[in-house]
């Protein structure tokens, strides 16, 4: 089979690999569509100490079950599924609390296991045992299905923020997840959602894709004053940093209202030290949350939002043959596309 193999910074090659062997208690699936995550792009641009040389990367996908172990009950061949890629053990303290994405021995497709930038992918028994394998409704397209997992990560982040009626929400970053965060905030009842983005191209696209959003140039010298004008001086109640820039942690906290909530959603490529002012958190009584990955339940919620038409994710997608993964990465870096989706079937 053909697969995209990670060899380090800007080294991603389409190579021939053996089709995966059926894992005991697991399955082998054909990959119909796989989308490029910001984490994949960051590993491509800056490297990753979490991905070994020779790994097939990718974890956002729509799968078609082909070979299924006899131990698995309730699934059929030729059934489409998504897989919540971060799989817990089910035994540790966090898993028993239901926070399986915080498992002490977490394993993730595309990191500890070979991923979805390939024609076929093995689904481990642990994913079935933990309920991470989720059926795709018949009317949901392959592209829609593969875009559900990042939505699940945003749902996880916003579960801590209690966004509601009357809230003003500031999102840093107008990529796919920045826009999804904005849409979810509106669905939760936010009165105003602002996307801060340095790229004029991305601001223009976000304005087109997210109904009702206000966009602001976060690189402008008077950026903070602009936020004040947009909110009529009332400030922002929630800040979400959906970009890999540590300065947004500092600026976001400065802009956050008293008793505000902040999600450090976007991981940083380099050193993560020194961006938060503890005194601001203290005196504002602000709540600052980290977030990592998503659980099976978050993925079910994401798929439901897409299936019921509450979220239109296809407007963000641009499809590429898997062999053109290099071009997809270049287009993402150039901000010519919002979300790259690979067609892996052929």
Description:
The protein folds into two domains: 2-153 and 294-343, Alpha-Beta Complex (Quinone Oxidoreductase, Chain A, domain 1); 161-290, 3-Layer(aba) Sandwich (Rossmann fold). It is 29% helix and 26% strand. It contains twelve helices and 18 strands. Strands 3, 5, 6, 9, 10, 17 and 18 form a seven-stranded mixed β-sheet that branches. Strands 13-12-11-14-15-16 form a six-stranded parallel β-sheet, sandwiched between helices. Strands 2-1-4 form a three-stranded antiparallel β-sheet, covered by helices on one side. Helix 5 crosses helix 6 (176-187).
CATH homologous superfamily title of the largest domain: Medium-chain alcohol dehydrogenases, catalytic domain
CATH architecture of the largest domain: Alpha-Beta Complex
The main β sheet shows up as:
7 strands, mixed
- Number of helices, counting only DSSP H or I runs of 4 residues or more: 12
Given helix and strand content, the structural type is alpha/beta
Protein name: Alcohol dehydrogenase GroES domain protein
Organism: Christensenella hongkongensis
Domain Alcohol dehydrogenase-like C-terminal: 177-307
Keywords: Oxidoreductase
State the gist of this model.
This protein is α/β, with parallel strands linked by helices and 346 residues long.
Question: What secondary-structure arrangement, pairings included, does this model have?
Answer:
Elements: E1 2-8, E2 11-16, E3 27-35, H1 38-46, E4 55-56, E5 60-68, E6 80-83, E7 86-87, H2 93-96, E8 107-108, E9 120-123, H3 125-129, E10 133-135, H4 142-146, H5 148-158, E11 168-172, H6 176-187, E12 192-196, H7 200-209, E13 214-216, H8 223-230, E14 236-241, H9 247-255, E15 256-264, H10 278-284, E16 287-290, H11 296-307, E17 317-321, H12 325-333, E18 339-343
Parallel strand pairs: 11-12, 11-14, 12-13, 14-15, 15-16, 17-18
Antiparallel strand pairs: 1-2, 1-4, 3-5, 3-9, 3-18, 5-6, 6-10, 7-8
């Amino acid at each position: 089979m053909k697969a995209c193999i990670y060899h380090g910074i800007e080294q991603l090659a389409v190579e021939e690999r053996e089709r995966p062997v059926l894992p005991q208690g697991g399955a082998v699936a054909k990959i119909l569509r796989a989308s490029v995550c910001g984490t994949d792009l960051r590993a491509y641009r800056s490297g990753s100490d979490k991905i070994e040389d020779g790994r097939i990367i990718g974890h956002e996908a729509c799968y078609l079950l082909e070979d299924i172990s006899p131990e698995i009950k309730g699934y059929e061949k030729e059934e489409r599924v998504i897989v919540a890629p971060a799989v817990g053990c089910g035994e540790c303290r966090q898993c028993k609390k239901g926070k399986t994405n915080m498992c002490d021995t977490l394993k993730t497709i595309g990191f500890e296991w070979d991923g979805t930038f390939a024609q076929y992918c093995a689904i481990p028994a642990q994913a079935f045992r933990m309920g991470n394998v989720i059926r795709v409704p018949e009317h949901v397209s392959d592209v829609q299905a593969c875009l559900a997992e990042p939505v699940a990560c945003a749902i996880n982040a916003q579960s801590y923020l209690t966004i509601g009626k009357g809230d003003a929400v500031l999102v840093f970053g107008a990529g796919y997840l920045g826009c999804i965060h904005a849409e979810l905030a509106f669905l939760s009842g936010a009165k105003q959602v602002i996307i801060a983005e340095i790229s004029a191209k991305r601001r223009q696209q976000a304005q087109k894709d997210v109904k009702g959003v206000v966009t602001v140039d976060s690189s402008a010298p008077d950026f903070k004053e602009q936020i004040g004008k947009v909110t009529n001086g009332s400030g922002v109640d929630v800040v979400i940093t959906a970009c890999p820039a540590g300065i947004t942690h500092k600026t976001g906290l400065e802009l956050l209202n008293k008793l505000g909530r902040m999600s450090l959603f976007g991981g940083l490529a380099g050193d993560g030290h020194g961006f938060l002012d503890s005194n601001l958190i203290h005196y504002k009584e602000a709540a600052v949350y980290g977030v990592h990955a998503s659980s099976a339940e978050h993925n079910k919620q994401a798929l439901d939002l897409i299936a019921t038409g509450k979220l239109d994710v296809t407007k963000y997608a641009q499809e590429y043959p898997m062999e053109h993964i290099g071009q997809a990465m270049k287009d993402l870096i150039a901000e010519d596309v919002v979300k790259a989706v690979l067609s892996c079937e052929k």
